[in-house]
Write a structure and sequence with these properties.
With about 400 residues, the chain is an alpha+beta fold. It folds into three domains: about 80 residues, conserved putative lor/sdh protein from methanococcus maripaludis s2 fold (Beta Barrel), CATH 2.40.420; about 100 residues, Efflux pump adaptor protein, beta barrel domain (Elongation Factor Tu (Ef-tu), domain 3, Beta Barrel); about 140 residues, RNA polymerase II/Efflux pump adaptor protein, barrel-sandwich hybrid domain (OB fold (Dihydrolipoamide Acetyltransferase, E2P)). About 30% of the residues lie in helices and about 35% in strands. The strands form two sheets. The chain has a six-stranded antiparallel beta barrel. A four-stranded antiparallel beta sheet has the order 6-5-3-8, with no helix packed on it. α3 packs antiparallel against α4.
Length: about 400
């Protein structure tokens, strides 16, 4: 395909433009010099304004965006966890104190018995006979004492009248004193016999739950036979025994915490909670009332005891349980979220953001841990801000863009 270009028209247009340029130059030359300078100056200003407006603006610096929050002050409870053993506050073995054949059992095994309830009966016939014999002997000795007293009453006036010798008087006095001693001995024998007879009715020394019988009916029991008949436990209040290390003791002394002693100046005292076998927490707390004053050299531990109420008898003596002991309360401690911590070989640190949004890498000394938080023993002030999100690519001295940062007005 061919394109026809009108050459004549192009030539005419070119000549017209040339004429206009020549005419403009001639007019420009005819202007005064100051007008020329003014026109040139205006043109330069227009060109400079156009260049300024069209020049690309420099980009603003982009700082890392982080989330920060203030340091929190709170009371932190410090606990230790140990393995404990439940022990009844009262544990009594019921034993036969006299020898004989077991005749009867007066309780339901595993049931509750009251103090002084009759539990067993031992054949009393032998001991009842001994009581009767002691009574008879006492009556005999009392009669002899009365006879000796009458003889002495007769001899004494005769001696005063020289109708009886000094020997007769001495014999009468000795017979009377001996008879009185025989009476006293007989009274003691009777008491002893009656006491032995009372031991044939074996009574409960305390109130509590009784075990199964350790001896069957018809068994020879007593010092010459089987003496243990049953055991009774009173578990309305139980003791929780556990062991602590020497290091625990030193740490408690540093904080002036004396286990087993109440300090009136302090608004808290060491107590325990225990976890049952089904991983539920027992609803009552126990107060620590005893700590062994010496360490077992074989284990390096010392014994601690707490009293725990057991009104529903959920806790059984001999049961093992997990013990959680309140060791200390750090008042107004500085705590930081564990998510803000960076732990490396040289220690643990957090990033602190200043008022000018410059971050500092701050090493801190860690203390006790609580859920999702940890105590900062040293390295942080109570009025500082720490970065909790977006700190993984930060370095000391960087400037950041902080969000969720409270203002001074807040």
């Amino acid at each position: 395909m061919q394109i026809n270009i009108p050459t004549e028209r192009l030539a005419n247009a070119g000549s017209q433009v040339k004429d206009k340029i020549v005419t403009g130059v001639q007019r420009f030359k005819g202007l005064p010099k100051w007008s020329i300078y003014l026109i040139i100056g205006i043109a330069v200003l227009l060109i400079g304004l156009i260049v300024f407006l069209c020049w690309p603006k420099p980009e603003a610096p982009v700082y890392p965006t982080v989330e920060a929050e203030p340091v929190v002050l709170q009371n932190v409870e410090v606990y230790g966890e140990y393995t404990g053993k439940i022990r009844a506050k009262q544990y009594v073995e019921v034993r036969a104190r006299v020898e004989g054949y077991l005749e009867r059992m007066h309780f339901a095994e595993g049931g509750y018995v009251k103090k002084n309830d009759i539990l067993f009966t031992i054949d009393p016939k032998l001991y009842r006979a001994r009581v009767e014999k002691a009574k008879a002997q006492l009556n005999k000795n009392q009669a002899n004492a009365q006879k000796a007293e009458r003889n002495l009453a007769r001899i004494q006036p005769l001696y005063e009248q020289n109708a009886a010798s000094k020997l007769d008087l001495d014999n009468a006095i000795a017979a009377y004193e001996s008879a009185k001693a025989e009476v006293i001995m007989s009274e003691a024998d009777l008491v002893q016999a009656e006491l032995a007879l009372s031991y044939t009715a074996v009574r409960s020394p305390i109130s509590g739950f009784i075990s199964e019988s350790s001896a069957d009916i018809g068994t020879l029991v007593g010092p010459g036979g089987k003496s243990l008949l049953a055991t009774i436990v009173n578990s309305d209040t139980v003791q929780v025994n556990f062991s602590m290390t020497g290091l625990d003791y030193l740490r408690s002394k540093e904080r002036n915490v004396k286990l087993g002693q109440k300090i009136e100046e302090r608004n808290w005292n060491p107590y325990i909670t225990i976890t049952l076998a089904d991983n539920t927490e027992y609803p009552f707390i126990g107060i620590v009332d005893f700590a062994d004053p010496q360490v077992d050299p074989n284990t390096g531990t010392f014994s601690v005891r707490a009293q725990m109420p057991n009104p529903d008898h959920i806790l059984l003596p001999g049961q093992l349980t997990r013990v959680r002991l309140l060791l200390d309360v750090r008042e107004d401690a500085i705590v930081v979220p564990t998510k803000a911590l960076v732990i490396e070989k040289g220690g643990a640190y957090v990033f602190v953001v200043r008022q000018d949004n410059i971050v500092e890498k701050r090493f801190i000394e860690l203390g006790p841990e609580i859920p999702n938080k940890v105590v900062a023993e040293r390295g942080l002030g109570s009025d500082e801000m720490i970065i909790v999100e977006g700190f993984h690519k930060l370095s000391h001295g960087m400037q950041v863009n902080v969000v969720n940062k409270p203002t001074n007005e807040e």
